[in-house]
């Protein structure tokens, strides 16, 4: 990889990993096509104890966002309260009272999916469509996140890079330092060390724990939203393509290593895997309780349910992913 030639490297890797036309000209699901009935049945058979883990961060004003590109933390407002009921101002008969609330937030302010209309490559959206007619002021007219509402249930696999590499990097905690680039060799080492239940293949939803989220809960948010972070190396794009995973999610803000590996680029791995590969990316997931359970039992696969909200035309969605073991 030539770090001084980002445009050349992005174009070459995009061509190598491109799935345009693989599922037809009208496709809106990209790599979610790898999740079929057999894969869902395989995932269901992984449930042994009924143990459940929510993989979501909190949706509240104490989140990591600092306003970059108008991304703010959620604002929750009560429109009816118990005090209104006590005061009899709600207009209900016979002593009836209630509470109501609203929330205002960017769709990508906490645990979320990036949809296929989120990132473009040189003016092209997923499957080679023109970006300008695919996503307009009316939203994503083709691959809106609602098209994936029933598809993100599959076998989940956790690769706990923080724990696997802790000894090698000499960390005090099971977490990777900011700026650590996770390579294909690191991913394969994690699979080998974690064992058969960590194998990764077609239709799986891959979860990668770096440990950065755990560090923020210990030390404060800092620059979690957009700052330096461990993450996937740009060089992992061919591995993600070859393994035919349906989706990938991490416990970091941006999925890939930050600072990025090129001298002049912004999120180049996004630029390859979303519009060219058709890969769904999850960010800001809370993998801590799941990682502890997987490490204790030495079992790293599970049924994962992570459907987006069917928000018509949206290019991303907040979620509450659930792992069932």
Automatic annotation (TrEMBL):
Listed EC numbers: 3.5.-.-
InterPro entries membership: KFase/CYL (IPR007325), KFase_sf (IPR037175)
Annotated Gene3D superfamilies: Putative cyclase (3.50.30.50)
Catalytic EC class: hydrolase
GO molecular function list: hydrolase activity
Pfam name, any one: Cyclase
Keywords tagged on the record: Hydrolase
Protein name (Swiss-Prot/TrEMBL): Cyclase family protein
